[in-house]
Amino acid sequence: MINVDALTKTFKNVQALDSLSFQAKDGEITGLLGPNGAGKTTCLRIIYGLLQADTGKAEIEGVDANQNPIGARRNLGIFPDKFGLYERLTVREQVAYFAGLHGLKSTEQRQAVEKVIETLDIKELADRRTAGFSQGQRMKVALAQALVHSPKHLILDEPSRGLDVMSTRILRDVLREQRAQGTCILFSSHVMQEVAALCDRVVVMAKGKVAAEGTPQELCDMTGEQQLEDAFVKIIGTDEGIAA
Amino acid sequence: MSALTSVWKKEFRDAIRDKRSVLAAMSYAFFGPLLMAVAFFFLITQLTDKADVEITIKGQENAPQLVEFLNEQGVVAKQDDWAKTQTPIVLTLPEKWQESVSKAEPVEVILRADWSAQKQQTDIKRVEQAIQAYSSQISAYRLTLRGVDPRVVQPIQLQKQDLATRGSKAALIMGSVLVFIILSVFWSGMNVAIDISAGERERNSLEFLLSQPLSTWDIVTGKALTATTFSLFGAILSLVLIPIIFAYVPLHEIGMNVNFSVGMMVLMFILLVPLALFATALQLFVSFRAKNFKEAQTYISFLLIIPMAASFGVEFARLKNPILYYLPLTGQHQAFLSLIRGENVNVMGTVISAVATLAAALLLMKYIARMLKSEKIVFGL
Known about the structure:
The complex is a heterodimer of chains A (244) and B (381).
Chain A (H helix, E strand, L loop, with lengths): L1 E10 L2 E11 L4 E5 L6 H8 L7 E6 L2 E2 L4 H6 L1 E4 L11 H11 L4 H14 L15 H13 L5 E5 L7 H16 L3 E6 L2 H7 L2 E6 L2 E6 L1 H8 L4 H10 L1 H5 L1
Parallel strand pairs in A: 3-8, 3-9, 6-7, 7-8
Antiparallel strand pairs in A: 1-2, 1-4, 4-5, 9-10
Chain B lengths: L1 H15 L2 H29 L5 E6 L5 H9 L2 E3 L12 E3 L4 H6 L7 E3 L8 H25 L20 H23 L1 H13 L3 H5 L5 H31 L15 H26 L5 H11 L1 H13 L12 H12 L5 H25 L3 H5 L2
Parallel strand pairs in B: 1-2, 1-3
Antiparallel strand pairs in B: 3-4
């Protein structure tokens, strides 16, 4: 479980997070939905310990990411905001590298790499260097890197950006599969359909705060709208009304 | 530890597949000594040049014997015109040469030249020496004619005994070769150091690497060891190539004797190890702060001035200060100088400078590891 408790973060004069609190439960897909600049990436970077929160804490399985970032990251699979690949390495080498960084050795490592390659159906890419890969292929490699150590928590920062329909479908399938295995999945997005199609719970963020929280249906009911998109607009637009 | 080796292995594999990095590491070690050898080759042929000195001789008909003598000494009258860039060397023989000589009066011979012109200095000297020699010849004749032993006018005979051993003469020229070897550790790993730091950032993979469960110290160490491996590879290459290439330079013609023994090379290599780590740490420190490869390259070329200035400065200013034995960079330089001169190496100084170099490298790496935890540096906030 990922527990975000009253996170506050300020960059110079910009308040990026304003006592943000929410939870992502095991075996559920939690969507972090918000317009650009709402603080989604900042929040996720605090969860994987790259940024220090001013106040509040983010806990992964009870481990505080700011106090013990390495311990917290052991339980995390991360699909970051920027996922550059090592273009001179093959997919297999690349995935094995991150398996190694998570402490997997020799046989154990090889098996884990084989397994994730099979899961993502990228056998024919496995021994190619990643230079010149398409956006969809790059996404799969990044996903393989995030999943190779079978993390109990998966955090994805706008994973579907730049993907075509086929790649998006593969991504969804993988996430549903992971959910079925009991993984706690947290992903940020500003794409409505994706959130509606995937998420068990949605946390709507605006200006560094939680604007609303619930299942997609609950959000629609709350705002009296049929479509999540309309609900979203209403929540963001009439911030105070919802919060009250 | 296992995370460190993972990083090292991966970075090494990555770097060795980067043709630019490998080529950069090799080309300096390869072309540098070659270039230097060619330069020395020309220097030596110039120094040992025994071709005739051509000067303008005015009034040749006044003193044919002197002109003949000069010709025998390799000083001849110039036939063509002087180049515009050269100051003419002009020797004027007076009309009353015969008259003065027969009366045993001093004859005024004028040598007009530019004594500050570097290139003409040996020429001028040879003309002077030839005329001096002719002058002593005449005085010897005169004294003999008057029944006096010519030796009475030479009360002191100066014997020049050159104490410069062949090795120490060599040290003069080899000094610049040493500077070159020392700089090889700065050059050879440079491209790799930039690629695994600023390059990692530019390719957007830094954030993901930093989100992995390993300490930034492991990341920095793994990366530093990779670049150090390349830098030492370059050092080995230049250490091996320099004696081979210099075997073809006729150093013995100017009385130089360079002996690279295997033991000496191994010792030099060992001394270069901490220096390579230090060079790498410096380069990583600079390029982790740069936004991209190009920016890092610009900073590092400024950084390279430091070791160059330090080693060339000491070399050419002939600085002699005991502290030089103990500092990083200059300590290795001094030890190399002693090695090549065949002198005893200042063991204490060398050990202390090696330890100081290593300590400086580790401190710098610790600082980089801390830097990579800073949001300011990582995200440029």
